[in-house]
TrEMBL record:
It comes from the Bacteria. Its cofactor is pyridoxal 5'-phosphate. It is an enzyme of class 4 (lyase). InterPro entries: Cys/Met-Metab_PyrdxlP-dep_enz, Cys_b_lyase_bac, PyrdxlP-dep_Trfase, PyrdxlP-dep_Trfase_major, PyrdxlP-dep_Trfase_small. Keywords: Lyase, Pyridoxal phosphate. Signal peptide: none annotated. It catalyses: L,L-cystathionine + H2O = L-homocysteine + pyruvate + NH4(+). This is Cystathionine beta-lyase. It comes from Pseudorhizobium tarimense.
């Protein structure tokens, strides 16, 4: 593209992914942005320094590299501004610290990413924030839980590991009637398959560690806010000294270029495997929002544009004392699926899911939950691997 301004507003998503962020004309025509390693930025004179009257002033306050990524994320999210943080977990803790004070009450979805619960139950609680967990499928009923001191409602859809869908529009509307900030962890869908701000969310959170990175080699998070919440979010990041690293920012922007085509592959392969699992007698249930059999399917269909490659299934095991042994037998037999945390990379992963921290949405009783991340491998090979796992579970 000869010049970024010619990218039309109705361009398709892959066209936009190929061109957003960096304007080649701003840096000698090079297609990719420079990786700027910086602390000091020089000023021409004291007046400029005093007024901070130039675009860049210090390494923590943004560079052409971090700006290129933040601009790309703003275009995808429809946000007024984006901060970069050192991990997806920090993309949750930083906005919570930005918007919560001692004496406030926060409503957190019970199917939340587990380390978020740890942050809430330890540090936020110690600082005097009252934490309450709510049912992911509460919808507009969230209003009954809102108290005069409720300041923040945190959502995540689908829920971590068990994939419950949330009616984000209904929750946002109820929360806003009481002046609450609504945050959403949108890591699973990415802004390509769901745009939280279009559904009333104020602050959209991402572990860019996952699909934007795409290669399991970067830890980074992003937080994008609407115009009303951007100043307070930005101030918090600057006040705490939190910023994105140059090489990581460069690589996340690089990952975004191919995220659309990668996601299409993840989506197709994951659905193929999910349907195949659903047809097996040794599978009790498949927890995937794009399956019509899944309880939150209608919300997913109404609000989301697609599904990524992470979902879970319940292995059918009658005797609860056998849950662990059967799940371990299956997982230890897999060879293509790696046994490891995180997801969004090119390689398939499988993990046993521990739901002991849940307060409301307890672990299923019809068998152990196993989470899959379907990578970029060929589906026939993945099914072969899983088949061997099921045989081992049956024999265990
Ligand atoms: C992985 C993940 C995070 C945390 O990301 P890290 O970069 O690993 O800290 C946050 N939210 C969700 C939903 C995740 O899956």
């Amino acid at each position: 593209m000869k010049n970024k301004a010619s990218l039309s507003g109705d361009a398709g998503v892959n066209t936009r992914l190929a061109h957003i962020g960096h304007d080649p004309q701003s840096y000698h025509g090079f297609l990719n942005p420079p990786v700027v390693h910086a602390s000091t930025v020089l000023f021409p004179d004291c007046r400029t320094m005093e007024k901070r009257d130039q675009k860049y002033t210090y390494g923590t306050r943004g560079t052409p590299t971090t700006d290129a990524l933040c601009e790309a994320l703003d275009e995808l999210e429809g946000s007024a501004g984006t901060i970069l943080v050192p991990s997806g977990l920090a993309a949750i803790s930083v906005p919570f610290l930005a918007f919560l004070s001692a004496g406030d009450h926060a409503l957190i979805v019970d199917s939340v990413y587990a380390p978020c619960r740890q942050f809430c139950d330890t540090m936020l609680t110690r600082m005097g924030v009252e934490i309450e967990y709510y049912d992911p499928e509460i919808g507009a009923g969230i209003e009954t839980l809102i108290k005069p001191n409720t300041r923040l409602v945190h959502t995540e859809a689908p829920g971590s590991n068990t994939m419950e869908m949330q009616d984000i529009r209904a929750i946002s509307d109820a929360a806003h009637r009481h002046g609450c900030v609504v945050t959403m962890d949108n890591t699973w869908a990415t802004p390509l398959y769901f745009r939280p701000l279009d559904f009333g969310v104020d602050v959209s959170i991402h572990a860019t560690t996952k699909y934007p990175s795409g290669h399991s080699d970067i830890i980074m998070g992003s937080v994008s806010a609407n115009a009303a919440h951007w100043p307070q979010l930005k101030d918090a990041a600057l006040t705490m000294g939190i910023c994105g690293a140059p090489d990581d920012s460069y690589l996340i922007l690089r990952g975004l270029r191919s995220m659309g085509v990668r996601l299409e592959h993840h989506q197709r392969s994951a659905l193929d495997v999910a349907h195949w699992l659903e047809g097996r007698d040794d599978v009790a249930r498949v927890l995937h929002p794009a399956l019509p059999s899944f309880p939150g399917h209608d919300i997913w269909k109404r609000d989301f544009k697609g599904a990524s490659g992470v979902f879970s299934f319940v292995l059918k095991v009658n005797d609860p004392s056998q849950f662990k042994a059967k799940a371990h037998a299956l997982l230890d037999t897999l060879t293509l699926f790696g046994l490891g945390y995180s997801w969004g990379g090119y390689e398939s992963l499988a993990v046993p899911v521990n739901l002991l921290d849940r307060r409301i949405r307890r672990a299923p009783t019809d068998g152990p939950v196993i989470r899959l991340q379907i990578g970029l491998e060929d589906v026939a090979d993945l099914k072969k691997d899983l088949k061997a796992g099921f045989a081992a579970a049956a024999a265990a």
